[in-house]
Amino acid sequence: MKRFIVPEPGVAIGESGLAANFSDLHPPLTSVQAATEAFACLFCYEAPCVTACPTAIDIPGFIHSIRHGNPLGAGERILSANILGGTCARACPTEILCEGACVVNDTEGRAVKIGQLQRFAVDAVMERGGAHPFPRAADSGRRIAIVGAGPAGLAFAHCAAMLGHRIVVYDAQEKPGGLNEYGLAAYKMADDFAQREVAFLLGIGGIELRQGRRLGRDFSLSDLQRDYDGVFLALGLEQPAGLGIPGEALAEDALGFIAALRRGGPKALPVGTRIAVIGGGNTAIDAAVQARAMGAGAVDILYRRGRDAMGATPWEQELAANAGVHLHFWTRPVEILGTSGAITLRLTDTQMVDGRLESTGSIRDFPVDRVLAAVGQRLHEVIPEGIAVENGRIRIDAEFRTSLPMVFAGGDCVTSGADLTVQAVEDGKRAARAMDRDLRAATNGTGRQGDSHE
Length: 454
What we know:
Structural class: alpha/beta
Radius of gyration: 23 Å
Strand order of the largest sheet: 3-2-1-4-18
CATH topology of the largest domain: FAD/NAD(P)-binding domain
CATH architecture of the largest domain: 3-Layer(bba) Sandwich
Distance between the termini: 48 Å
Mean pLDDT: 92
């Protein structure tokens, strides 16, 4: 596991320390290391690792290719199931997905390093250059609009382009990638990998990106319905959920902190001396560890339930502890007092009573100079009229259709599984195939041509 350089309070971390702390979390395997690791696989029949992967990558098959010296074949096998397999190899919680299901855990006490082998193979394909490994079908004459250039939108775009459709992707951010670009810790996506992966994906052709365009501000859903044969909504979750306590305006959005760090780098942001992060998911871990890696003297994660209930995986929890982050359980804030830079968190201890989380009644003050809130996100875009919503997310059927004709949705804006990049990729891929079936079954044939929204 990565060792972070964590200075004593009041001691500057220095440029070399920052560079080390924000370097690649998992250095890539060498060819020899990959071949050796591939020999640990037992090539199970009906392999549980495949079942545990939301995109059903043929894991034994790609590892077999690596074992026999064919990393390019392995990479293409992975990418045929998950076009964002490079990001997933770097950021997926493999310890609870494929590696968690690996039977070698029972025989050797540890799993085959599936994630690192996947990265080795996908990187080999991306570094090869040349023609895109998945050519487009003949032009269908149909145009599809996608709202959101995150994992679901990009996976949809690639799959739909393979099927011969022409794609235009609208996205509100400056760069494509969604949370892959703006929401993951910098040390997980070193060397500008998110943008390199997008460039690789676009190599298939037939996909146009239009960045800085927000639904409801720059165009409407009715515009897209008029001008395209189909629409896929991959809105993501950008708006931070509120803490719901007095003084919450003094707390910063942890995802915004991560995004600013990705945009400007660790030297561009003030970090503070003592930071509290409220939340228990991987975003809380990413924010806390990066704050510590930037040189914060003390970083504390405050979580209202116990360790086992944390959304962050045990591996992520260990990463935080390794960076010197302190995790406090059964603790939640009830009020934030003070001013920016001189904040007091008023905390209470919590407990479960008859299945409900309740305060014990105890109150204590916790002084900090910065608070980051990581308690989840909700839809930022205004859901267009006519789109049915359920529990705060877009309602879809089994084929990813919304309540409007030829408007589909997937990714974090719907409820289809775990809120993970790999699940969003699977949503996009399946939705593209479903829309393709509907388009080809329709009687209007050639599709509509329309305004480009320029």
